[in-house]
From TrEMBL:
This is UPF0481 protein. PANTHER family: (WILD MALAYSIAN BANANA) HYPOTHETICAL PROTEIN, BNAC04G53230D PROTEIN. Residues 188-197 have a biased composition (Gly residues). Residues 198-222 have a biased composition (Low complexity). Keywords: Membrane, Transmembrane, Transmembrane helix. Pfam families: DUF247. It comes from Ananas comosus (Pineapple). It comes from the Eukaryota. InterPro entries: DUF247_pln. The chain crosses the membrane at residues 446-466. Residues 185-229 are annotated as: Disordered. The lineage of its organism: Eukaryota, Viridiplantae, Streptophyta, Embryophyta, Tracheophyta.
Length: 480
């Protein structure tokens, strides 16, 4: 029965939904942690910071999604709200009914937007609309066509992606599971005018929607085959689509694990390909011994973008034979928000591996100035929207201000690589070879002249050797 198999409250040290400490928020990064038009969960519900016109539109879309999926079905929702309240680290002062209604609105919106889910209550929504507005569902206010149209208009903007992946803007994933059960009980049907599971919309990388198939004929019925696993897969596909970074883990592997909310799922895509276990015995340098990209270049380190021929993660930075290979990174309007919230998520969830904190700390040292950013852009490692190299460097400086990690801990997966780079950096021979290469061996004419000079030097040396040898031969003959 719906609502009877829900997840227990998080255990001690488990994944809770928390607020960002005030000390981590300043005027420069506030937009990275605050929703722009969409509130999910209690922390920003009714916030005056939200853009009022857009927020009102989003609340209307939520109501449309709720009517489409559940109609008037609210069975067991109060118990659901009671369990969900335990997942928030801060006190939620909302009344029980208001809190439950908020969870339903937010949950139905996420399910409609990210999975295209439609429930058994379309007819209820149609009747409600006809009663309240005196119009048919063809007006596009409710029903599947109305939901699709409303979602398309609302989701076709980057602000939605930004707002869905904020650490403070989350609801527990089990709420989505319970709404799915309420919308499609075992053996249930879509009801009159319902659509097949694939008849809804799917969200594109840009936050828009595309049609996934047609609807069932009006009056027909379709078996609901949505399961928790398929629900997890659809949501994982959405998150995968909006993360424009190399990933080494496949969606089935992601779905084989439990996650507690969307940002938790997002974090699961960021892990190094190689297990860093066993590296903890290596003594590493402190962060003030790391160097910028231009300094490494002066020491003969070559930078290359990691090729796409082998699956790899954004975190897979390697160094071998004087060459540092770094996965491609696009820096755009979403970069600071995504990384800021992932950093805070790792800090607030004790069981999370601190991979993002380690990666950001390394990159902030590597990209210390605009010249460092420009060098990696020239190597094809980084793309910077608008070519604002100084802003990209400052962005990683702000991220580094949030990052906290143990350079001797097991999560510091880059320690072995940085040991090798530092050993290369300290060899003076590498500095001399790099100096020759960068200052004297770029011009082909200089290379040819140097080669001819070297050959001339060899000839002169050989000639002098013959002269000396001839002199000694004459001296020996005279003595005889």
């Amino acid at each position: 029965e719906p609502g009877t198999e829900r997840r227990n409250a998080p255990t001690e040290g488990g994944c809770r939904i928390f607020k960002v400490p005030d000390g981590n928020i300043c005027a420069e990064n506030e937009d990275s942690f605050r929703p722009k038009i969409l509130s999910i969960g209690p922390y920003h519900h009714g916030s005056s910071r939200l853009e009022r016109t857009d927020h009102t539109t989003m609340e209307s879309v939520k109501s449309t999604c709720l009517r489409s999926i559940l109609g008037s079905n609210r069975h067991g929702i109060m118990k659901l709200a009671e369990d969900a309240r335990k997942f928030y680290s801060e006190d939620v002062t909302m009344e029980a009914e208001q809190f439950a209604e908020m969870l339903l609105l937010d949950g139905c919106f996420i399910l409609s937007a990210l999975t295209g889910m439609r429930g058994t209550a379309v007819e209820n929504a149609r009747e409600t609309a006809m009663t309240s507005q005196g119009t048919s569902t063809s007006s596009g206010t409710v029903g599947h066509g109305g939901v699709d149209l409303a979602l398309h208009d609302a989701l076709n903007r980057q602000d939605i992606v930004h707002d869905l992946l904020l650490v403070e803007n989350q609801i527990p994933f089990f709420v989505l599971e319970e709404i799915r059960k309420l919308a499609a009980p075992t053996g249930g049907t879509t009801g009159q005018g319902g659509t097949a599971e694939q008849g809804g919309t799917r969200t594109t990388e840009q936050g828009g929607t595309t049609e996934q198939g047609g609807t069932a004929e009006q009056g027909g019925t379709t078996e609901q085959r949505e399961t928790t696993e398929s629900l997890k897969q659809k949501i994982a596909e959405y998150v995968d689509g909006v993360l424009h970074y190399p990933k080494a883990i496949e969606i089935p592997a992601i779905c084989s694990n439990d996650f507690d909310h969307l940002l938790h799922l997002c974090h699961m895509f960021f892990r190094p390909s190689q297990n860093p276990a066993g590296h903890h015995r290596i003594q590493t340098m402190m962060t003030n011994q790391w160097h910028r990209a231009m300094q490494y270049r002066e020491a003969g380190v070559e930078f290359r973008v990691k090729g796409s021929s082998t699956p790899h993660s954004l975190l897979d930075v390697t160094f071998s034979n004087g060459t540092m290979k770094i996965p491609h990174l696009s820096i755009d309007a979403k970069t600071e928000s995504i990384f800021s919230n992932l950093i805070l998520f790792e800090r607030g969830y004790p069981r999370a591996r601190k991979y993002i904190n380690a990666y950001v700390t390394f990159m902030s040292q590597l990209l210390g100035t605009a010249d460092d950013v420009e060098l990696l852009v020239q190597k094809g490692i980084i793309d910077v929207t608008g070519g604002r190299y100084e802003q990209a460097s400052n962005l990683f400086g702000r991220l580094n201000g949030l990052a906290v990690f143990d350079p001797y801990g097991e999560d510091y997966y880059l320690k072995s690589m940085l040991q090798s780079v530092e050993a290369h950096y300290l060899r003076r021979r590498n500095w001399w070879m790099a100096w020759l290469k960068h200052n004297h061996l770029k011009n082909p004419c200089v290379i040819i002249a140097a080669l001819l000079g070297f050959i001339s030097l060899l000839c002169i040396t050989f000639q002098n050797f013959l002269s000396i040898l001839k002199h000694f031969n004459v001296f020996i003959i005279l003595e005889e």
